From TrEMBL:
Residues passing through the membrane, by range: 6-30, 110-131, 137-159
Annotated organism of origin: Thermanaerosceptrum fracticalcis
Calcineurin-like phosphoesterase domain location: 226-387
Domain of life according to the entry: Bacteria
A single cellular component GO annotation: membrane
UniProt name for this protein: Calcineurin-like phosphoesterase domain-containing protein
GO molecular function: metal ion binding; UDP-2,3-diacylglucosamine hydrolase activity
A GO biological-process term: lipid A biosynthetic process
Keywords of the record: Hydrolase, Membrane, Metal-binding, Transmembrane, Transmembrane helix
PANTHER family, per the entry: PHOSPHODIESTERASE YAEI, TRANSMEMBRANE PROTEIN WITH METALLOPHOSPHOESTERASE DOMAIN-RELATED
């Protein structure tokens, strides 16, 4: 074999190994302010830049001509650092300058990493062909570095960030094109509603007091008033409305049957900071849109009790709760039948093993409670965004609907979705056990339509209904 052919083989193998090493070992993690990212390159791809944002999806665009796919994946969010950044009120220009400076530093480190991988590919390629000879090793190294810098240079020279004005979306982010416009509309609407909700709650309380003068429900100081909420879905108005209802109606505790967030991401946990200062017990049962991150965040708050499976006694009210199966991960889709059956069995076992039977069962999705119909006096749930109160086999079933008016999704709906909560009145019987005697449902529509207050009275003979 001629020397020329040997050198050709050295160059070809060195280039191949350089590309292989860059693709396989070219990922690097880095921090940019409060965000931790991982960058990686895939060679012989379609000139894409891709942002992966678990669990909500992917944003990508064809930004350059070189055959490289640049992938940036969000790994973690430091909530404390993010909170400090938001509290610091740094100007946008200063923040952009700091980010640009840090990005340049990270870029230089990444190019250095890729260069080292290219050099390793060149040296190993030469060794595999000729053994430990200096000249072929230098040739392989130079060829690999030239290829590396050619690809990076072509990427830089042809990079067009304007392509992200019309990106492609995958996963839940497919909703992004309409969501951007919807959010712009919603922000103004939410701000307006937030102020009006305080007035609305005060008016509701005045009406409520008049109703109680005519038809009092709770008679003793140790009777309980429990607020049932569900499916707030990050709606800031829902949190304001909740606080106002709790204050205006002197609620004793809150039971939240889940879906307090949309995707269960740590960032959404920042929206729940208001619960940290809650003055009354707040019992939370995770839904399919919640996640271990949200459970961890809420568990830090002193008045919040997160129930994933078990019985808790709050002010003499025994609550059996079971989290939605999907809340154990970032998977939003409802679980399959096999998992649901397993959770039904767990719930039934907890009920059967209880020495003192619970006064109510609280879950996100009603489907795991069906075996206990006729055994428990009351089941609280949500999930469907459709308010309902009914009885089946002697068990009262209450779906609080959606306290957040389905969040941003509510703005898509062809039919208006109201903000809804249910006030549960428990009166203590002769054995000092709390029994449900009435449920007041409050539904707030847009500002033109106002609100409805509906009371249902419960007796052993059935359900009496009165609408206000």
């Amino acid at each position: 074999m001629t020397k020329t052919m040997i050198y050709v083989k050295v160059v070809l193998l060195s280039l191949f190994l350089a590309l292989l090493f860059i693709s396989v070992f070219g990922s690097m993690s880095f921090h940019l302010k409060a965000l931790e990212w991982r960058i990686s390159l895939q060679v012989l791809d379609h000139g894409l830049t891709e942002f992966r944002l678990p669990p909500v999806g992917t944003i990508s665009a064809k930004t350059h001509l070189s055959p490289l796919k640049i992938s940036l994946e969000l790994l973690n969010i430091d909530l404390d650092s993010l909170q400090q950044l938001l509290s610091a009120r740094v100007g946008s220009k200063q923040l952009w300058t700091e980010l640009r400076s840090e990005a340049i530093r990270i870029g230089i480190l990444y190019i250095l990493r890729l260069s080292i991988l290219a050099i390793l590919g060149g040296i190993i390629g030469a060794i595999l062909i000729t053994g430990k000879q200096v000249k072929p090793a230098l040739l392989g190294t130079v060829a690999s570095l030239l290829l590396c810098f050619t690809l990076l240079g072509l990427t830089y020279a042809t990079y067009d960030k304007e392509k992200f004005r019309s990106p492609e979306f995958q996963g839940a982010l497919k909703a992004a094109p309409w969501a951007v416009n919807m959010v712009e509309t919603a922000l103004h609407k939410f701000n307006l509603l937030g102020e009006q909700m305080k007035i609305m709650a005060a008016n509701l309380n005045s009406l409520y007091e008049r109703i109680n003068e005519v038809s009092p429900v709770l008679e003793k100081e140790d009777d309980l008033l429990v607020l049932h909420v569900s499916d707030m879905h990050n709606n800031p108005v829902a949190h304001q409305f909740l606080q106002q209802i709790v204050t205006s109606f002197s609620v004793d505790m809150v039971i939240d049957t889940g879906d307090i967030t949309d995707f269960g991401t740590p960032v959404e946990g920042l929206l729940l900071k208001g619960l940290m200062d809650f003055k009354i017990p707040y019992v939370f049962i995770p839904g399919n849109h919640d996640s271990p991150d949200i459970v961890k965040q809420l568990s830090r708050y002193p008045q919040v009790q997160v129930l994933t499976g078990g019985i808790v006694d709050v002010q003499g009210l025994r609550i059996l709760a079971m989290a939605d199966p999907s809340s154990t991960s970032r998977k939003i889709a409802p679980s399959d039948n096999e998992v649901v059956e397993r959770y039904r069995a767990k719930l039934l076992q907890l009920w059967n093993e209880a020495v003192k039977k619970p006064h109510l069962i609280a879950v996100h999705n009603f489907n795991i409670t069906e075996p206990l119909l006729g055994q428990t006096p009351l089941i609280l749930f949500g999930h469907t965004h459709q308010y309902s109160i009914s009885q089946e086999k002697g068990t009262v079933l209450i779906n609080a609907g959606t306290t957040g008016a389905a969040g941003l999704r509510g703005l898509q709906a062809t039919k208006e979705i109201p903000y809804s909560v249910v006030l549960l009145h428990f009166r203590r019987n002769s054995q000092n056990e709390p029994e449900l005697v009435a449920a007041d449902t409050i539904r707030v529509y847009n500002l033109e339509r106002g609100f409805t207050l509906e009371r249902k009275l419960f007796k052993t003979s059935g359900v009496n209904t009165g609408k206000i």
